[in-house]
Protein: DUF4333 domain-containing protein
Amino acid sequence: MLLLLVPVGLATVIGLFVLWPSGEPTRAEQAAAVAFPPGTTYPDGRVVSVETFDCGLDPAGPPQTCANVVLEILDGDAAGEFAAVELPPEVVAAGVAEGTRSC
Structure:
């Protein structure tokens, strides 16, 4: 039994040494830094109006509904201002209605 445990233990220690994080950002962390630069914020908002429209590209395919929404920004430097946003079909299908809060 000892002949099996010693090599497995040694392999575990070597694996820990080789695979231990180096402190450098991973590829995922580097991609996130590019996609979300420092200072990027996402303020809370409330949907004020929703206007849906058909956005399917293929007339023979399944219908897709997108929406133009107006959001009231609730916090941050732009609190009280309004922003227009176009939502893709996946977000509209998840359920968006007047009064919905985003955060």
Remarks:
- The mean pLDDT is 87.
- The chain has three helices and four strands.
- Residues 2-35 form one domain.
